[in-house]
Amino acid sequence: MKVVAIGCDKSGYPAVLRTLEGGCTPQLEVDVRGVSCLGVVRESLLLEILEGDASYILLAGCPLDSCHNLEGSRFAKARAERVNALLDEAEVDKRVVLAFVTADKTSPIRDALARCVDEKDRVT
Amino acid sequence: MRALIMTHHEVPLLERWCRDKERTRNADIRICSEKQLSTQGRGAWDVVVVVGGSLSLTRENVSESCARFGWNPLRVFTFPLDESLIPRGDTWLPRWEIFFQGVLAAKNGVPDVKAHRLTPSSKVKVISHPDTERKEVEDIITGMRQKKLDVSLADGDWRIIREGVNYRFITSDREEIVGAIVIVPQVEERFFLHVPDQIIDTRRLVTLHEFSDKMKRYNFRRQRIAFLVPSPTTPPRQWEQVFSLSEKLCKRDCAQVMVLCAETVVAGEGLEESYRRSRQAGTLYEKTDLTRAVFQETIDMRGIQVSFRTERDGVEQTLLFDWLISVPEQVIQPFDISNRFESDKILTPFSRPANSNLPPYSIHCQGMFLISPFSTLAERDELASGLQKYLADCVIAEEGRVEVDEEKCILCLTCMRTCPWGAVDVEGKLKRRKARVNWQICRLCGLCASSCPAEAITIAGFPAGNGDTVSVISCGGEVS
Amino acid sequence: MIVGERKPIREILELLGDNTTVLVVGCGSCVTVCLSGGEREARELASILRIRGQSAREVTVERQCEKEFLLPLEKEIEPVQAVVSLACGIGVQAMSEMFSSHRVFPGLNTTFMGMPVEQGLWEEYCSGCGECVVHKYGGVCPVTRCAKSLFNGPCGGSQAGLCEVKPDRDCAWQLIYDRLKSQNRVEELLQVQPPKDWSFSRSGGHRKMSREDMLL
Asked: Quick one: B223 and B258 in the same domain?
């Protein structure tokens, strides 16, 4: 299963890299991309990625209330929810998952990836 | 192709790799360490690659180096390499090879972007609402002067024009460039709790202000008195009064005093001490949701029964009081200065940001600060140090990175409303108008570009999600 | 500005049925500003359709309610089986008229004429009743913003400044009173207004407007 991870270069990107260096779930193929702030990821980019063979997108960024650009993570959360609602309506079982991390606290990423695997197992 | 590779640590494997002309496709590569950078960094490099230690390298770090060495930020690529991996062999080398091929193949026609270091002027202007208490404003200014800030009060008729990170302050007789503006708005006292009319008719419900007057004239010997503090955001000043009044009531008048509140505030200069003294004198503090409390007047109209549920143990209580004292909250009134703004006619509203982690004085407009006239000393100190930090830290801004396509811009004003830094306004006249991003203020967060419904704003080096697939994005430039 | 709301994806899928090659047409005017049918939304819908395995493309025109802007679409529309228009009802009809051999499905529900009261929130301000009277009511339209369209209000249900029909909305009559009070014109409300002539509105049937001097 393929997951595309998008992280902001303030916290999400280094955190994803650190998680992957530490070894991740073997069933997963993770493609990592960095952006300046999670707020720049718009719905169309998410959907464009999902048009490919990725089943999940992981958005990793600063915690909601301490986003470097004040509102970036909130934007990302709202957009992820919107895309998920659209996918849900269209009965497509691809999803966008969120993980709010700091550069040191990477466990939310591992949890989110594990959740993706669980969910996939349940569906199939 | 001339490439500069900057490493934070010695990476022998990388040096060996770079000598292999076949792999590097004959690129002219120079490797230098962070220390050598100051002597070797300048020059016309086609690409600059930053390696290692860069897991925490952000766009701001990149721009800072760009401002120092005159690089184009779009030509800087970062290769994230965990230092702990360097001695562990060449597991990262395949990743590097893919990355470097990407760098070599990176788009050539990148816009001409320049990074600048901008320093705001050290002057600070205080503007206050005409109805704000003059004495408090002057107190705030004296406090800031003691912190060695160059502060002055705006007088008479004034206008502001924004000039980059600074503001041009124009009065009838002179002009001045200031780096920051402190707004002292008007504050309104408001008591949010809804109390039935028959309780108000008993005239036993008085405001804090009225009661402190009464205290001077009457003795409340052995009476039962309750302070009602329904708002958790009641300012420390009001609490100071509640603490001292309750202590006095207990000690001087032997009254039974209770404070019913949503939250007790003790954070502030000397507040904890007066809270302790008030408790020692015998005041009871009870946390409860006052909006659910039931008020009932006694038949003789001389007392009021209050039924409430305590938050601590959830016990329903009904108590009889002779006096209820309403402690109002202080609400900052929006101080509209948009008609005094010459350059940007429409300003982001001067409200506090929803982000609770931000300091209380910051608002959504760079270089503008907000402080209540009834703020405590601690709050004023916090503002002064915040101002000092803002004026001392230079801002690194990148010129030429954001572009608004005037053919696409539909003037929906979404960007202006979403920009967290107040960097977007509108330029031009009538149909020729379009959004304008002030590069000196823009922090390149990309929120405007990503929320623009017409996709008129592009930030060079950022993924847009309109057709161009992105494979690797580094902090500065984009590799595809 | 005309405000529209995207139809649920499920409904759009049902409308499309077996048609697998689809063109999604966005509109660059009102519905772009109200974030429901512009370039971005067109791209999102096309993306969703592609994820579901249909072959979809998207295109956005300046205004779908002008035939001149629709002409260049001819080539795009030729090969597709169905068109989803993300414009308001006017745009959908203009498209259907221009490309009468194709089926054009509406992707939006056109909801009202209004304005953004804050970022991301739109409110109805006008219902196009054909005879404007807002000057009598301090610039607040009682026809649109009062749930009961009262000319001689308020009704008995206004509570704490809120409407009784939709309690999350301001009572229009409260707004009218406040506005007139601030202008020192409250006495004008004592005048009883005659009933509204609805024949200028939809009750009079399909409406038409012309300016003789501009006709060619």
From this structure: yes
SS3 call for B28:
strand
Per residue in B318-338, pLDDT tens?
Answer: 999 999 999 988 777 767 676
Q: Are B8 and B108 members of one domain? A: yes
Q: Based on the structure, what is the number of domains in chain B?
A: 4
Question: Which residue of C28, C43, C119 is in closest CB contact with B454?
Answer: C28
| Inside any domain, residue B61 | yes
Q: Please give the Cα distance from B241 to B288 (Å, whole number).
A: 20
B194 and B179, same domain (yes or no): no
Question: Are C29 and B410 a contacting pair at CB < 8 A?
Answer: yes
Judge whether C199 is closer than 8 Å to chain A, CB to CB: no
The residues in C 26-85 lying below 8 A from A, measured between CB atoms, are 40, 43-44, 47-48, 50-52
User: CA of B246, closest CA in chain C: separation in Å?
Assistant: 35
- Confidence class for position C83, pLDDT limits 50, 70, 90: very high
The pLDDT tens digits of the residues spanning A13-59 come to 888 888 887 766 667 888 888 787 888 888 888 998 999 888 999 99
Average pLDDT over residues C37-63: 93
pLDDT classification of B237: cutoffs 50, 70, 90: confident
pLDDT for B338 equals 67
The helix/strand/coil state of B20 is coil
Q: Which CATH class is domain A2-123?
A: alpha beta
Q: How confident is the prediction for chain B on average, in pLDDT?
A: 81
State the Cα–Cα distance between residues C77 and C56, nearest whole angstrom.
12
d(CA A82, nearest CA chain B) in Å: 14
Q: Are residues B204 and B181 in the same domain?
A: no
A20: which chain B residues are within 8 Å (Cβ-Cβ)?
Answer: none
DSSP per residue over B392-428, as a string?
Answer: HSPEEEEET-EEE-TTT-----HHHHH-TT--EEEES
Residue A83's pLDDT is what?
Answer: 94
Among C33, C43, C119, beta carbon nearest to B410: C33
Q: Which residues of B touch A18 (CB under 8 A)?
A: 55, 82
pLDDT band at B359 (very low <50, low <70, confident <90, very high): low
Does the structure show a pLDDT above 70 at B468? no
Which of B115, B136, B171 delimits the end of a domain? B115
Structure-token pair, residue B354: 């929803």
Residues of A in contact with B443 (CB under 8 A): 69
CATH code at position B417: 3.30.70.20
Identify the domain boundary among B393, B425, B443: B393
* ipTM (interface predicted TM): 0.87
In chain A, where the domains are located: 2-123
Same domain, B37 and B145: no
Token pair belonging to C93 = 């009809």
Q: What is the DSSP string of B136-187?
A: HHHHHHHHHHHTT-EEEE--SSEEEEEETTEEEEEESS-EEEESEEEEE--E
Using pLDDT thresholds of 50, 70 and 90, give the confidence band for residue B480. very low
**Tens digit of pLDDT for each residue in B13-30?**
888 888 877 777 777 888
**Helix (H), strand (E) at residue C110:** strand C108-118
Closest residue in B to A52 (Cα–Cα): B469
Q: Do A86 and C44 touch (CB under 8 A)?
A: yes
Of all helices (H) and strands (E), which one includes residue C40?
A: helix C39-51
Task: Report the distance separating Cα B471 and Cα B103, nearest Å.
Answer: 12
Residue B474 lies in a domain: no
In angstroms, the separation between the Cα of residue A123 and the nearest Cα of chain C is 17
- How many CB pairs below 8 A link A and B? 93
**Domain C2-111 in CATH 3.40.1390.30:** no
Q: Same domain for B110 and B10?
A: yes
Which A residues 48-87 touch B at CB under 8 Å? 48, 65-72, 75
Residue B439 has pLDDT above 80, yes or no: yes
**Closest residue, chain A, to B356 (C-alpha):** A65
Contact present, A14 and A7 (Cβ < 8 Å):
yes
- Residue C135 above 50 pLDDT? yes
Question: Residue B204: which domain range?
Answer: 189-331
Which residues of chain A are within 8 Å of residue B459 when distances are taken between CB atoms? Answer: 40
